[in-house]
Every structure is written in structure tokens, then in C-alpha cells.
Design goal:
The protein has 387 residues and is mainly α. It is built from 16 helices and 2 strands. The mean pLDDT is 84.
């Protein structure tokens, strides 16, 4: 296995972790603040989340030999920012355990895997393209924010595609970091938090209103807004995702780490596309090493605590946006090509894509779920025989 490890695997794994943290760690901080956690408990949350994502990603990728990447529930964290206002932290942990039990039960019963098989490939690719579209677009809108930095990274991307395709994104990241360093675009290094993460468990308390008002919605948004798109991401990349096994493992990880702040783990979608795409490796059979590398990096970030997180936060936003967008361009293009290839399903694929891009949200559930609902409805309508 180690003989197959390439620099591109390490680069893709590092970029996935970089994008994963910088895109949503601020929401985690808000959730921690909402529940009134102490500094020790806040560090414990960061440790639990990093280790949870790292160990599950590493274990699942190596076991199934496909790029299974897990993540914390970002929409779940956003829900917690609102739902945990005034909720004692021990009752919040009780809600996390309830969500973990539901996730584990979902994996063990296998019903979600059977449901995922009903989604046509064209809709799966359209949904993935729609989810990733805003990240690809951010690489270009960031030109307004820091024209020199993003232009240099764009030139590095084109040069990489021409002359060193396997290491394109690594080159983009290095050029961006060097440019930002010379121009002083990084934040204040004096603000680095050098504290280490240590476990600080909280004994759970189970409150029926909190279980129904926080735990159940946390499960619903995690399933609809994370696990469904994550499953689709792997399918669109040409893999058969181990849905039930992954849900069982991430649910069990939630149960174990909930007292330490691991509120919910699930399939990754956006960062998984980085590890499952051609930028990680030309050979689909060995791309799992990219997600395995990401798992190791997640563990290091979790153990590194506030120091590593604050390093992410002082990076220029334009650098993060450009790296993420350029890393996902190939995946977006391939997904759109596959989604629109069949004329008979083109309308349904386009509606799925446009709904996902729109960012709409109803009943607290994000656009990815509603894109699938509309796409499946239109696909069924057009598949019916017409007289």
C-alpha cells in the first residue's frame, strides 16, 4: 500500500482538510459558544471532531479501498447555533447521543442504502455539480478580492494541467502560499492559539424536549444535507459507496465521542470530491489513499488543537477559495457532462442542478435534498409513457 502512495494523494488530502476546516470551523465556534462551553470543553470539541473524522475516514478508506471521507455535520452545526441557545451542555450531549443512536440504527437497518440506489446516475451527477458549483465559482469571484494572488494561482493551475497534472493542486497551493507570504496577506501570527486539545467529557442528561427539538432535527439535516449528497458524490465519481457500513461507523463514532463534543459525523461531500477526483490520482483504484491521508491529517489537526485551527483561520480567504474552486473544476465538468449526456433525462438533471445551485431551504432542510425531490419528480413524470 505504501508503495502506491503518491505526493498527489498527500496534496489532495491536505487540501480536503484545509477546505473542510476553513469553510465551516467558524460555525463550530458559534455552536460551542451557544452551549456555553468552557475553554477546556471547546478544545475537547475540536479534538473529538478532528479524531472522529480522521479515524473514520482512515478506517473506512483502507477497509473498502475507495475514497470514503467523513466530516462533521456542517448544517447540523448551524442548527445547533440556534437550537442550543439556553440549553445546558449536559442536555446537549444527550441530544448528540440520541442523534448518534439514530444514525447507527439507520446504518444497521440498511433502508437508506436501498433508497440511495433509486437515484438515477444523471441526477446524482447533476446534484454533485450543483453542490460544488459555488465552490468552483468562488475561485473566480475571489479575483475581485485579491487579483494578484488568485491570478498567480490560476496561472499555476494552467501550468500544472499542461506539464505536471498529477501535482497541479499542490503547485497551486504552494504558489498561493508563497505569494500571500511575500505580500503580507496572512493574518496576525501573534494571534495564534497555542493551547493543546485534551478530552473533557460531559455526563449526558436526557431531556425529552431537547431530544425532540435538537437531537431529532440534527439527525434529519445530517441525513438529508450531508449523507445523501455524500453518497451521491462517490457514486458520481464511479464508486459504489458502502452506505450502511459508513452510517453504522459514523453513528458509532458519534455515540463514543458525543460526551467530548463529537455531535454528529457523516459522509463528506465537497471535500470527498477532492479526494475522489482525478486531481488526487489518475488511477481510480488508488484514490482511496488520498482520503486515508486526509484522515491522518484530520487526526493531527484534532490533536493539535487551537494552534492548527488558528493557522487555518489566518490564511487569506481568497487563497482558500481559489484552492477549493480550482481543485473541484475537473469534478464539476465531468459531473455536468455525465448529467446532460442523455437527452431523455436532461430536463430532470437540469432542474436538479439549478435547484442545488439556488441554495433554497425549506423546513430547515437545504437545497441538496429539495434538488433530489424535484429532480426525481420530473424524472418520473418524463419517464411515464405518453399517448
Amino acid at each position: 500500500m505504501l508503495s502506491q502512495l503518491k505526493l498527489s494523494h498527500l496534496a489532495a488530502g491536505a487540501v480536503a482538510v484545509l477546505v473542510g476546516y476553513t469553510s465551516s470551523v467558524a460555525i463550530i465556534f458559534q455552536a460551542i459558544e451557544a452551549v456555553g462551553a468552557s475553554q477546556a470543553q471547546a478544545n475537547s470539541w475540536l479534538m473529538a471532531l478532528g479524531l472522529g473524522m480522521g479515524l473514520t475516514s482512515l478506517g473506512l478508506s483502507l477497509w473498502f479501498r475507495i475514497p470514503v471521507l467523513t466530516a462533521w455535520s456542517t448544517p447540523g452545526a448551524a442548527l445547533l447555533v440556534v437550537g442550543l441557545q439556553g440549553v445546558p451542555i449536559d442536555q446537549a450531549v444527550g441530544a448528540f447521543l440520541f442523534c448518534g443512536a439514530l444514525l447507527t440504527l439507520t446504518g444497521l437497518t440498511g433502508w437508506f442504502e436501498r433508497l440511495a440506489r433509486l437515484i438515477p446516475d444523471s441526477l446524482a451527477n447533476a446534484l454533485l455539480a450543483g453542490i460544488l458549483f459555488k465552490f468552483g465559482l468562488s475561485a473566480f469571484t475571489a479575483l475581485n478580492e485579491d487579483t494578484g494572488l488568485v491570478a498567480a494561482m490560476g496561472l499555476a493551475f494552467l501550468a500544472g494541467r499542461l506539464w505536471f497534472a498529477r501535482y497541479t493542486i499542490l503547485g497551486v497551493l504552494l504558489i498561493g502560499a508563497i505569494w500571500a507570504g511575500f505580500t503580507g496577506s496572512f493574518g496576525d501570527f501573534d494571534q495564534l492559539n497555542t493551547s493543546l486539545s485534551l478530552p473533557s467529557p460531559v455526563l449526558p442528561e436526557f431531556s425529552l424536549p431537547v431530544l425532540i427539538g435538537v437531537g431529532l432535527p440534527l439527525y434529519v439535516v445530517t441525513m438529508c444535507s450531508q449523507n445523501m449528497p455524500g453518497t451521491v458524490t462517490l457514486r458520481a465519481a464511479g464508486y459504489t459507496p458502502p452506505v450502511s457500513a459508513t452510517l453504522s461507523v459514523t453513528g458509532a463514532a458519534t455515540l463514543v465521542l458525543a460526551p467530548f463534543g463529537g455531535f454528529a459525523f457523516n459522509f463528506a461531500a465537497i471535500t470527498a470530491a477532492i479526494c475522489a477526483g482525478p486531481e488526487a490520482d489518475d488511477d481510480p483504484q488508488t484514490r482511496y489513499l488520498a482520503s486515508a491521508a486526509a484522515g491522518l491529517f484530520y487526526c493531527l489537526v484534532g490533536l493539535g488543537g487551537g494552534t492548527v485551527i488558528s493557522l487555518f483561520l489566518i490564511a487569506p480567504p481568497a487563497l482558500i477559495a481559489a484552492v477549493a474552486g480550482l481543485a473541484l473544476l475537473s469534478t464539476i465538468g465531468n459531473s455536468l457532462s455525465h448529467a446532460l449526456r442523455d437527452e431523455t433525462g436532461r430536463e430532470a438533471a437540469l432542474i436538479t442542478f439549478m435547484t442545488a445551485v439556488s441554495g433554497i431551504s425549506f423546513l430547515g432542510i437545504g437545497a441538496a435534498f429539495w434538488a433530489l425531490v424535484l429532480g426525481l419528480g420530473v424524472n418520473h413524470l418524463f419517464a411515464r409513457p405518453r399517448h
